[in-house]
Structure prediction request, 294 residues.
Amino acid sequence: MTATTLIDPAPQSAETRPKACLAGMTRAALAERLGDLGVPERQRRMRVSQLWGWTYVRGATDFELMTDIAKELRGELAAHFTLARPEIVTEQVSVDGTRKWLLRLADGKEVETVYIPEADRGTLCISSQVGCTLNCTFCHTGTQRLVRNLSTSEIVGQIMLARDRIGDWPGAVPSDPTGLPSGERKITNVVLMGMGEPLYNFDNVRDACAIVADGDGLSISRRRLTLSTSGIVPEIPRWGEEAGTMLAISLHAVRDELRDELVPINKKWPIAELLDACRAIPASRTRNASPSNM
Ligand code: SF4
Prediction:
């Protein structure tokens, strides 16, 4: 019998860690990573604000553009962080301007993001999981098994990519102007109504919503940020307390017999329980929804 020596993997230092996506890191996590890079504590808050502005207000994709940050630190940032977006597999633009992207993530998994422009607003529908554990009968994603939750960076990254493609950064030009709203901002609303059940990826979705709503960054207010759920009753009051976005229920039927068929999670948490959970959070944060692309 051959003896086997088990070797513990070396702990990852700042030098050996893979590059972290800057878009999607919370302010606290970013400050901590800057500390790992030797940025003095008294400077970290200012550096986080600078990076936040370059990332979310200007949409920078290159650290060299950040000219108010010393060249040496820019080099360190580029060595340890990335501003890369998800890779576009396909981009479809319909005659009314609706865009649908199939995006490839760093591990090769794919998700969809959809942008729906109207005259005075633009709504981006983003995904929260690769696949889904639920089996709603009307839904293509429901035929796929759950592969994994999306990270906070992957959730925020869908918005960054969409803003790139429709020219929604100051001074940017859209790659295709078809159907874009006339206002200054092209993405005014974000809905978590794409692939996956967002309440089953609670923490990452909550952190992503906090980043998206940050008034010094992407600045999409929580009233324009909507989580759509199939009805994960135990998580609904918690979402109201911790995230405070709008909430939409993917109802599809008002009787349990029919909803049991269309949205099978209804067998576990029927309509009466779902409505009780919704009543536990402020009424202004609930409305009915019928997802168009789920
Ligand atoms: S509708 Fe939403 S919750 Fe239901 S299977 Fe599709 S992705 Fe999952």
